[in-house]
Design a protein that fits this description.
Blueprint: H1 5-20, H2 35-53, H3 59-64, H4 69-89, H5 96-99, H6 115-119, H7 125-136, H8 141-148, H9 152-171, H10 186-194, H11 199-211, H12 213-232, H13 234-238, H14 258-281
Helix pairs in contact: 1-2, 1-4, 1-7, 2-4, 4-8, 4-14, 7-9, 7-12, 8-9, 10-12, 11-12
Length: 282
């Protein structure tokens, strides 16, 4: 199934807000947008605009691309852009007062009250990225690795660390190491929580969880964290898109700047060549 401009836009907007640790909060009674909201939307706009100028958001191009390839390329570009923005800022992007604290109910129309959503901006940039890709975008480890330029095993290890950091941020204490049997490792538990294990291995993990209450509690917590993060962003997906993110209907960039289209065609071919083996194996 080919991607649509709307699905790509929603995905880019969710991911940009998670990467910058900034939440969409309406100005009290005016329907305006705060600076934190604008920064994330501006980041998504810049990434989408580069694809639009290259003609990659035209109906013809969307229909011709392998399923998921354009979305992964967009998420990878957003990761790099947000990483540069965070490094240049020299400080954490999260500002509780700018995001609207619990005591400021005037700005609560879009604010996610889930504890996991409140804790996410306090995590390192790399942890926010991998959690957003796994929980919000529902990508498997191979796809996460493609976005973050690492192997699937490295993506799983990064996700395990990010989940431990999120739990520590929620509880205020360091997450203890999870002990497992010789035939069972923590990566199996993460794979079970994310639904990516083979059926036979899944049955083995289920049997182990029936005997290990702590492991079962940890798996349930990972699933609950992901569900609450998705719920926190549900209002973001439901509200009308700001004008700067309206790329429908797209206009082929070749009609305006043929040289720019040629340059982006070359870049897209290189990106797609890197994605083809993983996409074919899925």
């Amino acid at each position: 199934m080919s991607e649509s401009v709307l699905s790509l836009t929603l995905s880019a907007r969710r991911y940009a807000h998670a990467l910058l640790g900034r939440w969409p909060v309406a100005e009290g009674g005016a329907g305006g947008r705060r600076r934190a909201d604008q920064d994330a939307d501006d980041l998504a706009h810049q990434a989408l605009l580069s694809f639009w100028r290259a003609g990659l958001l035209s109906c013809e191009e969307l229909a011709e691309q392998p399923p998921g390839a354009l979305r992964l390329a967009l998420l990878r570009r957003l990761t790099r852009m947000a990483g540069e923005l965070v490094r240049n800022a020299g400080a954490a992007c999260y500002d509780r007062r700018a995001a609207g604290g619990r005591g400021d109910r005037r700005f609560a129309r879009h604010f996610p009250w889930a504890p996991e959503a409140l804790a996410l901006p306090r995590l390192p940039f790399e942890s926010r990225a991998v959690l957003a890709l796994a929980a919000l975008e529902r990508l498997d480890y191979d796809a996460i690795g493609l976005v973050l330029d690492m192997s699937a095993a490295q993506a799983l290890a990064r996700l395990a660390r990010a989940r431990a950091e999120l739990t520590s941020a929620l509880s205020g204490r360091r997450q203890p190491h999870l002990r497992a049997a010789a035939h069972m490792c923590e990566s199996d538990l993460h794979g079970y929580a994310d639904g990516v294990l083979a059926p036979e291995r899944r049955a083995e993990v289920e049997g182990w969880l029936e005997r290990d209450a702590e492991a079962a509690r940890r798996v349930a917590q990972w699933r609950r964290d992901g569900e609450r993060l998705r719920g926190a962003f549900a209002t973001l997906d439901a509200e009308p898109l700001p004008a700067i993110l309206n790329f429908r209907p797209p206009v082929l960039a070749a009609r305006r700047n043929p040289s720019a289209r040629k340059l982006w065609r070359r870049w897209w071919s290189a990106v797609l060549d890197g994605f083809r083996p993983a996409l074919a194996a899925r």
